[in-house]
Every structure is written in structure tokens, then in C-alpha cells.
Write a structure and sequence with these properties.
This protein is an all-alpha fold and about 550 residues long. The protein contains 19 helices and no strands. α1 (about 1-70) packs across α8.
Amino acid sequence: MAEKKQASENKQNKQVKQSFLGGAAILAGGAAIVKLIGAVYKIPLNNILGEVGKTYFNTAYEIYNVLLTISTAGLPLAISRLTSQARARGRENEKRKIFKTAIWLFFILGLTGAVFMFFGAENLAAFQNNSMAAQPIRALAPAVFWVCLLACMRGYTQGQGNMTPTAVSQILEALCKVCLGLPLAWYVLEILNMPLETGAAGAILGVTVGTVLSAFFMTFYLFRHRDTRIANDTPPGSGYLISRILAIGVPITLSNSAMSVITVMDTKIVMGRLQNGLGLTQLEAAALKGQYNYAMDMINMVVAFAYPVTISLLPAASAALARKEYQKTDDIISSAFRVIALLSFPAGVGLCVLSTPIMRLILPARPEAALAAGPHLRVLAFSCILIFLMVLTNAILQTYGKEIIPIFTVIAGGLVKITMNYILVGNPMISIHGAPISTLCCYAAIVILNFIFVWKYSPRKPRYLSMFAKPVLASGIMGAAVWASYGLTARIMGGNAATISFSKNALATLFSIIIGMMIYFVCVIALGILRADDVKSIPHGQTIIRVLRLK
């Protein structure tokens, strides 16, 4: 009997772990498609708008992100966690009641945020020391309402272990940006010869339409796949469920919205210090801020792959904790650390080594801006690694019920960022180059604090050195190979990253990336970083295990 029980527990342990990894694989695959579509959107858009137009676009997006984060950051995760726990206990009526209660809460939050953003556009733009961003802010306002409804529906499906609707809706949302926002921005600026702020508003309109279509898709999906099975459990009242959603979601929201608010304040300080501290005009300050934004775009495209891991982590680990299966929880979190390490270190090293070549590759119409953005990306590449780790450790602390801790660690990092920006950006010897330095220090402070608390509250203390040593070694070898291959190729072509033609730089960059991927793949296999359990649940996982002889 004991052996059968142990075998059953081992089987459940593998199923939970595979469910997590399978969900992460689906969301990561969706994120890859979304980021590819996003690159098709952002890269030409950056070339169309230029540095100044890009600053208008980003200013609107940062304000949008604050309202969006307040409305959707923690509450969908709360719905996901509660739904996952109810499902694990077989309480189907409670699961349905959670969604029916939450959708009205999100309706009110979304409507309030949209109205505030639409009618307060001029004041919000003035607060950011960027008055010309009012039109883009207003164009984004309706998206707040629709994204709130969308977030509720995504949280509900994720809580049931179904990540596919989220991935599909994200792809649909991204496609609308490309198919509508990009042509509209080009038409407004190139054909109608309208101002840059109007072009930025046109680009943002594609985002708004995308959220509407995605919300309709999720509604249709839930209607078609509604569960009509009869259940016997008696669900709690709506008031109790709302209090539970808020108790879990509000601390997470405060943690995430703290960074969004800090980003808004950061932009306000950077724009203000460039104008008041260095005596630049608003247009000149916007141009410098746009160069920094170009580099941040690359980082944001890469770190998006951290979120599928954490979105899938929370419901899987929460369900295991609800059943008091602590070994399963530890296994899931260990897998998440390995996946994040495999993704983050090579990404950061690659972006650092190829910073200027990459910026030249994606900004063919803005060569001077590309050269100016290269040094920003070189510093921010290390921030990329830290953001991956921050996102994961925040999710781990939230899974352990320590939602309040990330609030304080994010605030601590934000204070570092704001203080350093005020000092560095206002220094004429440093200027806008202080922005990426302050960003790096911000995330370093957050990750160090998070690592301390994760170690403190984990039942099995994580061994950070053993988890990260091999990925760091593999990434270092890859980085050296990429640096050597690009330098040699560029030299053969008669120049360096700053002087060779666009086509030659593109060839050298792509060749070096391929070399780096091959070297890293060999290192991962040779050093035994990838394990059989990490790929079992992804499509064709058994084939990968057999071909690569994983253990």
C-alpha cells in the first residue's frame, strides 16, 4: 500500500510539474509570436516616428500602464489563484461564482480608468513635462476599459490551467497593432503631413482596436466552452469573494503599480532635468529621451518571455500549496529558476556584445539615433537579466503568500532609480546616459532584496550559485564567440560597427547571432543544464529528450 501511495504521489508530482511547464511552453510560444509581431510593429514604427515621436508614444503608454496596472496587475492573478484552488478542490460552483463576481469589479475599474485618462489627457501630458503627448494619451483611453475585461477573462482561463486562450488573444491584439496602427501612423505622417503627436496617436489607435477584438474573442471562447456540469458545492457570497480577490490582488497590484508609477515619475524627472537642469528645449529633451526609449524597446521585447513562466507558475504552485504538497511546489519553482536562467543570461550577454550592431540593424532610417542608442543598450543588457530575475522572484514571493514584500523591494529600487536619475541626468557630463545607469541600479537593488527574502521563506533553501553557475559559464563562452565573430566579420568587410554599411552590418550581426545560438546550444547540452523533466510536457518533448539524450 505504501509503495502504491508513493507511486501515485510521484505520478501526481510529474503531472503538476508538466502542467506548469506545458502552460509555460504555450504562453512562451504565444509570447514569441507576439514579440515577433511586435518587432514588425515597433521597428518600422520607430523609424517612422523618430526620436521625438517615439517619446510622445512612450509618454502615453507609460500613463496607460499605470492605470492598466492598477486595474489588472494583481486582480487577474488573484482570480487565477482562487480559480485554481477551487478547481483543485472540485468546487465547480465556487469557480463559476468567482468569475461572475469578478467581471463586474473589472467593469467598474476599467470604466473609471478610461474616463480619467480620456478627460485628463492634457493635464497628464503636462505633468510628464511633455505637453504634446495629449493626443496619444486620449487615443489609448478606451483600451483601459477593454483590457480590464480581457484581464479578468484571461485570469479565469489560466486558473483552470488553460493558457491557450490567453496566447491566442495576445496574438490577435498584436496583429491589430501591425495591421492598423502601423499603416495609420505612416499615412498620417507621410501622406497627410500631420504633426508627430497625431502620428503617434494613429499608431496607438491600433492598440485600442486590438484590445476590443481580443475581448470579443475571449467572450466568444468562454461562451463556447462554458461548463454546464451540475455541481453540489455551495459557493461563498459575492462579498466574501470580492474581499478574497482584493486581499490577494491588491498587494500584488501595489507591487506592480509601484514600478509603473515610478516609471512615470522617472520620465517626468528625466524630461524635467534635461530641460531645467541642462537648458534643453522640450523638443531636444524628447529627442534624447527617444534614443533611450529605442534601447528600452529591445529590452522589453526580450523580457516578455519571463512573464509566461510566472503566469503559469502561480496557479500551478498555488494548487500544490492548497493541497499541502510542498515537494511539488519546490519542484515547480526549481524548474522556473532553470528556465529563467536559460533564457535571461544569454539574452543579456548577447544584447551587450551586439548593442550598437543591433540598434543599427533595427533603425535603418535613423542611423545617428542608432549609434546614440547603442551605449544605452549596452548598459541595459544587464538590466535585462535582472528584470527576468525580478519577475520570477516576485511571483515566488506571491506564491508563498508574501505579496507585501515585493511592494517594498520595488519601491526601494524605484527610489534608487529616481534619485540617481535626478543626480546623473542633470549632470552635463553624463546627461541622458544617466538614465540606463539608474535603471540598472534600480533592478539590481530589487533583485538582491528579493533573493534574500526568497531564501528566507523557501522551505528548501535555493542554491543560487549552483543554479546560475552553468548558465553564466555557457553565456560567457557564447558572448566571447559572438564578439569575436562580429569583429572578425566586420573587419573583413572593411570597418566596424559604426562605419560599415547597413547591409554589411546586418550580415555580420545575423551571422554572429547564429554562431552564438549554436555555441550556446552546444554548451547547454555539454554542461547538462537542460534536463529531461524541463522539456517533457512541451510539444514533441519526448523526441527532444531522445535526440539530445537528456536525463
